[in-house]
Hints:
The protein is mainly alpha-helical. Helix content is 80%, strand content 0%. It contains 26 helices and no strands. It has helices at 3-31, 34-40, 46-60, 63-76, 81-94, 97-102, 110-123, 127-153, 160-168, 172-186, 189-201, 207-220, 223-229, 234-260, 263-271, 276-295, 299-309, 314-322, 336-367, 370-398, 404-432, 440-443, 446-472, 478-504, 513-536, 540-550. Helix 10 (172-186) crosses helix 11 (189-201) and helix 19 (336-367) runs antiparallel to helix 23 (446-472). It is elongated.
Amino acid sequence: MTITTFFTLLGGVGLFLFGMTAMSSGLQNAAGDKLRGILEHVTSSKITAVLLGIGVTVMIQSSSATDMMVIGFVNSGLMEITQAIGVIMGANIGTTVTAQITAFDLSAFAPVLLFIGCVMSLFLKKQFTRSIGGIIMGFGMLFVGIAMIKGAIIPLSKSPRFISFLSKLSNPFLAILFGVAFTALLQSSSSSVVIFQAFAIQGMLDYNTAVYLVIGAAIGSVAPNILASLTTNRNGKRTAMLNLLFNLFRAVILCTLINVFPQILTLIQSLSPGDIGRQVANTHTIFAIIAVVIMLPFSDYIARLSEILIPVLPQETISRREMRLKYLIDASNTLPAVTIRQAILETERLGKIARDSLRDSVYAFFDHDQELVEKVGTSEGIVDYLSHEINTRLLALNATELPEADAFRASNLAMIVSDFDRISDHAHNIVSYINKVPDPKTAFSKHARRDMFFLAEQTFRTINLAIDIFANENFDLIPEAQECEDVVNLIEEEAVEKHIGRVIKGKCDPMSGHIYTDMCAEFERCSDHAMNIAKALVPRKLLEDIEEGEN
Length: 551
């Protein structure tokens, strides 16, 4: 094999992978957020989840992209693990479409596709049309890459060393291992199966060896998901583990079936006699379908196994318990006034979670308590979920004809939810400062820490009053809340001024000075949000009277 042939092979693989990426990106851009929205609202039906996984993966031509979206949804709490496994199974079927397409020899049309796609991508103005151009251009690159691969591997068929290497793959175990490693390297099962197709078409692989390579490719396809899960929470990691477990069980089941019932392979070959490229593609698809049909009834057990391998922590149990609506029910058969009262109770619960998260963030920062850091992160996820759900119900309520008083409460409750969400965001910000201050007890003096805790306590007092005022419509407490908020503003100014003086005198670490002032600002903003909450449901005339009395 010459250097030229070797680089032609690499170039063909690179062009094929780039074509796959271009086609996938074009499909995702053309679809916009619709596919993401479809996945986000997947139902609890296992069959529906599988069908959605198939459909989305066929649309974007990338099971890895589908799996990563699913990992993201599970990570953020928008999808349950038991729902995710159905989508992952469907994605394993959807990804086989690529091999079915490339089994056709369309390389003669590839230059035309490249030209049309290039013109549409570069010279047309509409984003949708340009995305379609990207799909066509990626499709053309796909077949140009395949043609280059086929051309480059012809000399390999005459290489004794390469033939000797491939002959070792006649051992099923070695073939599976090679399929795993090769696919993990390419990070695409579709790409590796297409390359195995090309080897088989050129007579360098027999059908039985290709079968085990395809089985190994399915396991190797999990590599990008495992890498992506390293930055997610434990639920995201469990989702990647689900994918790995599914494909490991799939390999065991398929290897057992084809050895106990070799007629399966004979049947698949008989569907396309004499066309080994199509036989490999059919094997890829049929194996995926068989695996899903056999394992779908046991999907809950696979999900449970992932939770055994990555155990559920106490904090996650809290998250699962809290990440649901307790008071708001289906508003279609409920009086608007009752629904609004339910929304107030739900928002009060949301507010207390945000308040507690803010309190936890202070101790997490000063004590470098990792358990509290994780608790704040969990609370942030719960607050985000509840905010989304409450606002969705309020929007549905606002779409109906409401009395003026109810319409006022419904619209302003949405603003209260937003303010509580922002308080939770500030708690998350405070926790993020931990990485910037190695040891707060040495970076900040005793007086600096005392001032910070005093500011925090006054902020908590303002938030508590705000929760009481809006939840019970106890508007007589607004002057007291305003007084607390004014105290917070005063303390924040004094704390920053004192801290600057301490930094100048060398009593506090100057490198951490801006962190201290940023934290003071976080509390002051939380106090501002608390006052927004306190005044949100006050009738306009009464609010004018209160503000006039303050002046």
